[in-house]
Amino acid sequence: MASKSTEPESPKKNEKFDKFYTEVKEIEKRDSVLTSKQQIDRLLRPGASYFNLNPYEVLQLEHDTPLDEARKKYKRLSILVHPDKNQDDLERANNAFETVNRAWRTIDNDESRKKCLEIIQEAKDMTEFMIAEKRKKLKKEGKDTSVEEDDPAIMKRSIYVQTCKLFADLERKRKDHEARELQERKRKREQEIEEEQKATMSKEWQKNFDVIQGK
Predict the structure, then answer these.
(1) Where are the alpha helices (DSSP H) in 3-89?
(2) pTM for this one?
(3) Which residue numbers delimit the J domain (predicted)?
(4) How many CA atoms lie within 13 A of 131 on its CB side?
């Protein structure tokens, strides 16, 4: 079995990663100073109901951010989008504020935070598995095993997309479960009403029968 290569990464690859890392930090710096309106726009942008399923996306946090730091970011963001600060855009501010609060409640709760982190880890594992399978296929075909995900920016994007898909799938299952429960409650209630009506009719029939019999 061939041993795993221990050669250092090429300067070109390191340079690419350094550039990517710098760009990410610039984006983080830019996002951290978004105005109230810009934050509301971000939280209510097209597809927001899809993106906002991930509470870390809502609060612009890395998944390994310490809880104390996450709380500080939540407070800053909630102040920015608070309806009292956005009286000229009250309805959208209310929606954005509720989105931020819902995200924080999810992260602040041990159980729900654990579930979120499991989803994020699963997305990473699935992405890495997909890449490994692509490399196997290329190797089997005698081709270069380099893949586009070798680019850190594309890798990060792939994990992000997979994370969104998993959160969306979980939400779909939750809604399906709620719909089934609602349907079951409706069925039971209809059955109860039918039985109540039958009981009432039976009593009325017995009452009328007794009258006829002179009882």
Answers:
(1) 11-32, 36-43, 48-51, 55-58, 67-81
(2) 0.64
(3) 54-128
(4) 19
- Cβ(116)–Cβ(55) under 8 Å? yes
59 CB-near residues (< 8 Å, 6+ apart):
70, 73, 74, 77, 100, 103, 104, 107
For residues 179 and 63, what is the distance between their CA atoms, to the nearest angstrom? 31
Q: Residues 6 or more apart from 108 whose CB is under 8 A from it?
A: 67, 71
Q: Output the six-digit token pair for 44.
A: 């209510």
What pLDDT digit, counting tens, does each position of 13-61 carry?
A: 556 555 554 554 454 455 555 899 999 999 999 888 888 999 999 999 9
Per DSSP, which regions of the chain are E strands? none
Judge whether residue 8 has pLDDT over 70.
Answer: no
Q: Is 204 exposed, middle or buried (0-12, 13-18, 19+ CB in 10 A)?
A: exposed
